[in-house]
Amino acid sequence: MVAASMPEIQLDSIVDLALREDLGRGDITTDALVPPDIEGAASVLVKADGILAGTGVAEIVFRRVDPQLRVQFSAKDGSAVRAGQVVGRVSGKVVSILKAERVALNFLQRLSGVASLTAQYVAQTEGTKAGIYDTRKTTPGLRFLEKYAVRMGGGHNHRLDLGDFVLIKDNHIAILRGKGMSLADIVRKAKTRVPQGMKVEVEVTSTGDAIEAAKAGADIVMFDNMPVEDMKRSVGLLPEGVKTEASGGMSLSNVREVAMTGVDIISVGALTHSAKVLDISLELEF
Q1: Strands 200-204 and 166-168: what pairing?
Q2: Domains defined along the chain, listed by start
Q3: Tell me: the pLDDT tens digits for 240-255?
């Protein structure tokens, strides 16, 4: 599968939308200049070091434009690639290759960029117990694919959507505290109002709140923008079995220091909202 747990019909709709954006009115340049019967081939060339992701989606794009195109990738998603490496080849009618080129590359470059950035974060936390997790700060409509790319880079997926599990954030807490509820009351209410066994996570900004949430039954305590020393102290004070997460302001320059506090999870919004695309091109051959 291109993306685990992603329904095929949803992937098809994403590809169809992307093709409509680019090819909805046709390719006036190619149709005007390139004879429709000319055949050729193109190499998929990586122009920067990184982690490859999105080959399956790119292949779907080519085949959606022309089912007769022959598409073969020599490198798999999740593999390290180097600048100058040819990772795939497409052959068939040149007009079809040209019409599919940009959309296929957009998916391939974007997802490879996410995977490459994720791999950098994972490398920074090597030797610690902390896992690198994504967030819901994804490109609208591309969440399944971007979260797939995170996994290809060695990271993990946090909530896929708002129905995955309970995450009590600052705004929830502010609303309910305004009604006279304590943090412990809020956690206990969540535990009794959701299906048995569903995890409840709570966002906190102080060690006191972390302890209160854990004692009330929180399964995961998220330290939101807490100083490193406060996180380290909080981890040592929480009951065994309670998972801990660090969130907010994570970067390649500070993620290892955060990982050394002993947290289990480090969530990084930048994996999907700030990843630079991996430079990949399609080079036509005749």
Answers
A1: parallel
A2: 8-122+275-285 (3.90.1170.20), 127-273 (3.20.20.70)
A3: 999 999 999 999 999 9
